[in-house]
Specification:
disordered N terminus; single chain; 221 residues; alpha+beta; 11 strands; three-stranded antiparallel β-sheet
Length: 221
């Protein structure tokens, strides 16, 4: 190999190494981060439904939603604490309404005056149950037939979260509804934010308020 050929080969190798270094610099370092706002349009997540406009915040001790997180309220939606009913019969009826699959309802956000439905926040009774296990028990705890459960991990405001969606069929009414729930852990508690379609509510009635709340989650006081 003559001198000119050796120089040409060396130059080509140098250029190749430089190009390789440039490719490495542009490549992502480590595993891809979990998206804070996944985009899965259509069934079953409907991420194209955008969050509602905020009308305030709630959460934290002393608030109508006494849980260790704060979150934005959709405009026109109001939060209230869920208090245990009084009296023997009230306690029996209340437990059926406020207990579900190892969780207890802590507060309810009512959007009926704004044309929406309900966003309910539950706390796991054993406080440190993993997020996915809490969601699985929650979905099964309503006495309905659960079909097609799907899960995904994401960021919800300042928290790592697990979200679940499923179809539930009421054995009495034989009504099928789509449900969504998201679990986070804060201050040693596992919390579940849940909404569902129903006879008089559609996904566009409940998902905007739900999306606003879970994407704006922050640590409460």
């Amino acid at each position: 190999m003559d001198t000119r050929t050796r120089v040409a080969v060396s130059a080509a190798l140098a250029l190749g190494l430089l190009a390789g270094c440039g490719d490495d610099a542009d490549a992502p370092a480590g595993p891809a981060a979990v998206s804070p706002a996944p985009q899965a349009t259509g069934e079953p997540w409907y991420d194209e439904v955008t969050p509602a406009s905020s009308g305030g915040t709630t959460g934290g001790s002393g608030s109508p939603c006494p849980v260790p997180v704060s979150f934005p309220l959709a405009d026109g939606w109001t939060a209230k604490a869920v208090e245990p009913p009084k009296g023997e019969l009230a306690e029996l009826v209340g437990e059926a309404l406020t207990k579900r699959g190892g969780t207890t309802m802590r507060c309810e956000v009512d959007g009926r005056s704004a044309g929406g439905g309900f966003l309910r926040i539950w706390a796991a009774d054993p406080p440190t149950v993993p997020r996915r296990a809490t969601l699985e028990s929650f979905a099964a705890g309503a006495g309905e037939t659960v079909a097609g459960p799907q899960f995904r991990d994401l960021r919800a405001g300042g928290f790592d979260a697990t979200e679940m969606t499923w179809l539930a069929t009421n054995p009495l009414a034989e009504e099928e509804s789509r449900n969504w729930a998201l679990a986070v852990q804060s201050a040693g508690q596992t919390l579940v934010f849940a909404v569902n379609e129903g006879l008089i509510t559609e996904r566009t009635d409940v998902l905007p308020a739900y999306r606003l709340a879970v994407r704006g989650l922050a640590k409460g006081e």
